[in-house]
Amino acid sequence: MRRILFLMLIMAILTPGVQALSYSDEPFFTAYVAGSNYVNKGGDTTLQLVIQNNAILRKVIYDDFTEYKIFSSDPTQLLVAYNVTLSFEGDGEVIPLTDVMRFPAIKPFQPLQIPLKVRIGGNASSGEHQIKVKVKYEVIDSISVSTKTPTYPEATKEVVYEYNGTYNPLNPTQNLQKTTVVNEPMQPYTSYLKYKFDEKEQEITLEVVVEESIQLRIENVSSRLVAKGKGEIELEVVNAGEKEAKNLFLILSTPSGIVPISTQQKLPELDLSMLAQMIPTIAGFEIPQQTLQLPPEAQSALSKGVYFIGDLKPGEKANATFKIKAGDEPGLYAFQIRGVYVDENGNVKQTDTIPFGVEIEETPQFKVVSSSSSLYAGSKGDVAFSVEVSKPVKNLKVEIVTNPPLSAIVKETFVGDMNGIFDVSFKLKALSDAEGVYPAKLKFTYNLGGEEISEEIDAGVEVKPKMKFEVVGEGTLEAGSERLVSVKVRNAGNFEVRDATARITVVDPFSTTDDTAYIGTLKPGEAKNVTFKLKVDSDATPKLYALNLEVKYRDVSGEWVISEPVKMPIEVREKKSKIPLTGTITLVILVGSAIAYGMSRKKQEEKGEQ
After folding, report:
1. Domain span at residue 454?
2. How far apart are CA 353 and CA 514, in angstroms?
3. Residues 433, 523 share a domain
4. What is the pLDDT of residue 501?
5. Structural domain contains residue 349
6. Residues 419, 392 within the same domain
7. Alpha carbons 331 and 231: distance in angstroms, whole number
8. Can you tell me whether residue 609 is helix, strand or coil?
9. Which of these, 508, 566, 506, 501, lies nearest to 538 by C-alpha position?
10. Plot region of 5 (φ>0 → left; ψ -120 to 50 → alpha; else → beta)
11. In this structure, are 420 and 499 located in the same domain?
């Protein structure tokens, strides 16, 4: 039997196919609009078109064995519409905007949903309009086989024996454990089959109802929006339609990164059953029928980006204010607004979306105009900045951010409402080894539409050289003596010091009962005397010594500062030798005798002359 079937298949393949395949029902299409087919005048809307291939395999008549052999195993391929093309045609008042659509294949009873965008003219007549859907597709008409003889693989049979234990040739089946049979059936090469398709066309008519409804138009837009802050958008809208909109809500759609906050409006006192119908359109979620009051999420949805207008008759205008939080970047942004209302039949409707542009300005820009510093190394001082802001700010406070070798003592100051150029100052401290200009940041925090905003800019802080003093002159002492020693202290710095006091630190072989001397005010380059009472040991080695001298003073900021020590030179000289007491007496007698003799001689000479 298998041999006969194989010969029949070979004969069928070698025999040219006859195009007489017929079957029913072939692919054919139906289409309808899912949901409402009512549209408003003067705008674009999107209809949900559903199209379906309704082919059902009822009967197939095969012309030859080839067709039977190929299609009988999968007859559903006869029901597929191939190379499907959809195009749309309106009536002049209702104009399809969707381009031609193409599909490689559409299987039966698998509905395909297509968004069909249409434009309704502002002067379109109310009532029914037609949109024609033109469908072009192909169905399988017949199949033919190439006259080239294909090669078929021969059927093979392979038997595999597996034994367990020692093989016994006298009884080979004794230990047979498993037999495996591999058989490859014959398969024709289908690459030689050729399909022929028949082209089909259909025209499906859809009904669209243009109704008299409201049309919103934006008359004026004003905004006060700055990047990163909160602000308001005010709209003036007009009902440009032919009907009254009852319980009209305006819904604002914002670009990414821009968030509606509130309309600062009390929620309307509407019938809860009516609100329950409108909120799914407004906010996108349902309200359970048994709810006696609005749930919190519904109240939140009605207070953010939703403004209640009420009843709006044709030609009437209304104002709406939305409060939003702007994004981080300035620029011109596209917003949208639509209306949700109740028509005269109590049905919830919504208007077309209306786009409009809003300019978001850049945040206030701060820049340092000038700066001054009374900060010196190793002391505290004031640093002042003159700053310019590009636009008015409220509740401004400024903070200076520093790093070592600088530290802030008073780092924040409140400025208040400010515009243009203003001054701020801070008290800083610099380490003793600091000198030059060091980086810092000025942080500005202010209120922008109820939102606290912070900005930072770079600033430089100058640290002036540390105050220096010099000792002019040197003191001298004999070993074992005690006396007042005076030197001069000179201001070798760049600013005047006040209430200055010099103090020395004594070490062996020195001691003191008065180590402090008052200087007072000392201008740059000026020098003043200072005196200290010093005593040196008698066994001190004669040489030049140096004592540490420090100056305590008030700097330009009135802060007490102690200078770095400077050296005050002290020369210790050798002690002078003393004459014995007896020798001194003898010397006095001799001197006295000489003087007496001289005076006596002089008197005698005076008498002789007389």
Report:
1. 366-463
2. 93
3. no
4. 95
5. yes
6. yes
7. 15
8. helix
9. 508
10. alpha
11. no
What's the average model confidence in pLDDT over 294-316?
76
d(CA 345, CA 186): 71
- The Cα–Cα gap between 31 and 53 comes to 9
pLDDT in tens, 549-576: 999 998 887 888 888 899 999 999 988 7
11 and 92 share one domain: yes
pLDDT range class, residue 11, cuts 50, 70, 90: very low
Q: pLDDT value at position 399?
A: 95
Q: pLDDT (tens digit, 9 = 90+) per residue, 201-212?
A: 999 999 999 877
Question: Which among 316, 341, 360 is the end of a domain?
Answer: 360
Q: What is the CATH number of the domain that holds 296?
A: 2.60.40.10
Tally Cβ neighbours within 10 Å of residue 276: 16
Backbone angles phi, psi at 298, to 5 degrees: -70, -40
Please give the full DSSP string across 477-543, using - where no structure is assigned.
Answer: EETT-EEEEEEEEEE-SSS-EEEEEEEEE--TTEEEEE-EEEEEEE-TT-EEEEEEEEEE-TTPPSE
Six-digit token string for 539: 């066994």
Q: Within this chain, do residues 397 and 252 fall inside the same structural domain, yes or no?
A: no
Q: Is residue 141, in this structure, part of any structural domain at all?
A: yes
Helix axes 296-303, 272-282, angle to 10 degrees: 60
100 within domain boundaries: yes
H helices present in 520-568, as ranges: none
The strand pairing partners of 500, in sequence order, are 520
Task: Name the residue type at position 283.
Answer: A
Which residue, chain included where needed, has tokens 């200009």?
437
pLDDT band (50, 70, 90) for residue 99: very high
Let me know whether 250 and 273 are in one domain: yes
Q: Which residue has the tokens 């002159």?
A: 473
CA 570 vs CA 484, 489, 518, 574, 604: distances in Å: 12, 14, 20, 13, 58
d(CA 275, CA 216): 21
Q: What is the identity of the amino acid at 207?
A: E
Residue of 310, 316, 325 whose CA lies nearest to 255: 325
State how far the Cα of 603 lies from the Cα of 38, in Å rounded to an integer: 161
Ramachandran angles phi, psi of 608, nearest 5°: -60, -35
- SS3 of residue 191 by DSSP: helix
Ranges of beta strands (E only) in 315-435 are 317-325, 331-342, 348-350, 354-360, 366-373, 380-401, 406-410, 412-430
| Count of domains for the chain | 4
- 292, 273 contact by CB (below 8 A): no
Q: Which backbone phi and psi does 549 adopt, to 5 degrees?
A: -125, 130
Is 581 a member of any domain? no
Please list, residue by residue across 20-37, b when 16 or more beta carbons sit within 10 angstroms of its beta carbon and e when fewer do.
Answer: ebebeebbbbebebeeeb
Contact 382, 425 (CB under 8 A): yes
* 195, 50: one domain: yes
399, 443 Cβ separation under 8 angstroms: yes
Check which CATH number belongs to the domain holding 408 and give it: 2.60.40.1230
Q: How many helices (H) and strands (E) does the chain have?
A: 5, 38
Going by pLDDT thresholds of 50, 70 and 90, the confidence category of residue 467 is confident
How crowded is residue 375: how many other Cβ atoms within 10 Å of its Cβ? 25
Q: What is the distance, to the nearest Å, from the Cα of residue 417 to the centroid of all Cα atoms in its chain?
A: 27
Question: Which stretch of DSSP H or E encloses residue 534?
Answer: strand 527-536
Same domain, 427 and 521: no
Give the three-class secondary structure for 57: coil
Q: Which two tokens stand for residue 593?
A: 């005798």
Residue with tokens 């000198």: 435
Distance CA 71, CA 2 (A): 20
